[in-house]
Amino acid sequence: MAFDYKVADLSLAEFGRTEIRLAEHEMPGLMATREEYGPSQPLRGAKIMGSLHMTVQTAVLIETLVALGAEIRWVSCNIFSTQDHAAAAVVVGPDGTPDNPKGVPVFAWKGETLEEYWWCTEQALTWPDGEGPNMILDDGGDATMLVHKGAEYEKAGAVPDPSTADNEEFRVVLQRLKDSFAQDSQKWTRIASRIKGVTEETTTGVHRLYEMARDGKLLFPAINVNDSVTKSKFDNKYGCRHSLVDGINRATDVLIGGKVAVIAGFGDVGKGSAESLRGQGARVLVTEIDPICALQAAMEGYEVVRLEDVVETADIFITTTGNFNIITAEHMSRMKHQAIVGNIGHFDNEIEMVGLENMPGVEKKEVKPQVHEWRFPDGHSIIVLSEGRLLNLGNATGHPSFVMSNSFTNQTIAQIELFTKTEEYSLDVHVLPKILDEKVARLHLDALGVKLTELTKEQAAYIGVDVAGPYKPDHYRY
Ligand code: NAI
């Protein structure tokens, strides 16, 4: 059956399929989920719109959701993060060919413009039958934001005005909403009304959801997947430990050992990133605003500094804060010749790229896609990775399969929870019960040869837990 999609090149599907097959072996949680839930088809009737980096690992997630009965439309949540072979393989599907694709509609390619990115997002939110999805699986909250903003303007009966946007990306969003408003002034209200809920992948998206819930603006319930322990304490930390150096190496191939590297932010991503560079022999400095995280960094043996004091002497700068304007254009103008600047937080505004672009006399030269040399009027230059967007996905291939299996098993369970038990989830942001978090971890133990000790009944009673778990109270921090 013909279906709509837009990817770079379907002839890459075989390469994608081979990598998906290898990834499946490294994603035991997702494969066990297929086995456990496949027969009962808990997601039959679910129409899931996914906005999450279209990588090989995400392909295994998508095909797991399909195996559980869902209908899917998918986009990437970043203009640079799509792996074109993975996107092609998902469209072609395991049983199709490039001439006769039988898979899932994907709208994503590496190197989208902002206009294309938001076009893709709208396509995936627009089902061919004219209806929208009934579930969203989001990473960073862009899909959720588009639906909410659209519905907000429609409720107010106000035509979105792109000239009121305070940045280029939001201008593009408002233009898209303005165009859709002209065609159908109730489109987003209708889409929002059918959505049973959203499951959100990352810290930044979760932050947006809690703000909407606090302000009474949330239109459907949400599950915060990020704060499953088996997500944020694994993907954010060990994933970045793996993929940060991978991105820097593929982009620059500079020897990291001996260099001075600054990690801005020592949360979960910062902890993994600092370890990543220390593992390569870098001398790692950390900046923090939170005394607890600053103390943790110091106890781990990192020097905690202010960016202003090291901006002229460090060699590598990585932002991990989820905050904005961490590295300003003025900072960059003062950096050493060929200092490397990159961000691994969700949005590109951690580095003040707009300020850099508007600085008088600054020239930008493309070294290769997603690697740019910015030369200042005094002749010195810096190297900016992925134009300030998350470099582990822009310059490399993101986190490896095994760690993503943990994150995506949480995503799958969260989708099943919200879709099948909708009435149990109030209009708020929820986390998965700890017993499910423990289940996700359990599914990954065998592959690593872990032999878990079993509590005796007496021991369980002594520490006040059930032999089968959960083993910790909700306030435990790991
Ligand atoms: P987190 O909240 O655990 O850590 C952020 C840290 O930055 C906090 O400790 C905070 O105190 C600190 N911070 C805030 N403003 C600062 C400033 N001005 N200077 C120095 N430090 C500052 O968040 P988490 O989970 O580490 O995530 C960070 C970002 O990375 C988020 O945007 C998240 O969505 C994204 N992320 C990216 C991934 C990737 O693969 N690239 C994977 C997972 C998360």
From TrEMBL:
Keyword set, alphabetical order: Cytoplasm, Hydrolase, NAD, One-carbon metabolism
Metabolic or biological pathway, per its Swiss-Prot or TrEMBL entry: Amino-acid biosynthesis; L-homocysteine biosynthesis; L-homocysteine from S-adenosyl-L-homocysteine: step 1/1
Cofactor binding description: Binds 1 NAD(+) per subunit.
Compartment list: Cytoplasm
Keyword set includes Cytoplasm: yes
Names of required cofactors: NAD(+)
Residue numbers binding substrate: 55, 139, 201, 231, 235
Entry-linked Gene3D superfamilies: Adenosylhomocysteinase-like, NAD(P)-binding Rossmann-like Domain
Catalytic activity: S-adenosyl-L-homocysteine + H2O = L-homocysteine + adenosine
Family matches, as Pfam families: AdoHcyase, AdoHcyase_NAD
Domain S-adenosyl-L-homocysteine hydrolase NAD binding: 236-398
InterPro entries from the UniProt entry: Adenosylhomocyst_ase-like_sf (IPR042172), Adenosylhomocysteinase-like (IPR000043), Ado_hCys_hydrolase_NAD-bd (IPR015878), NAD(P)-bd_dom_sf (IPR036291), S-Ado-L-homoCys_hydrolase_CS (IPR020082)
Tagged with keyword Magnesium: no
Domain of life: Bacteria
Annotated NAD(+) binding sites: 202-204, 236, 265-270, 288, 323, 344-346, 392
PANTHER family linked to this entry: ADENOSYLHOMOCYSTEINASE
Protein family per UniProt: Belongs to the adenosylhomocysteinase family.
Role noted for this protein: May play a key role in the regulation of the intracellular concentration of adenosylhomocysteine.
Name of the protein in question: Adenosylhomocysteinase
The species this protein was found in: Salinactinospora qingdaonensis
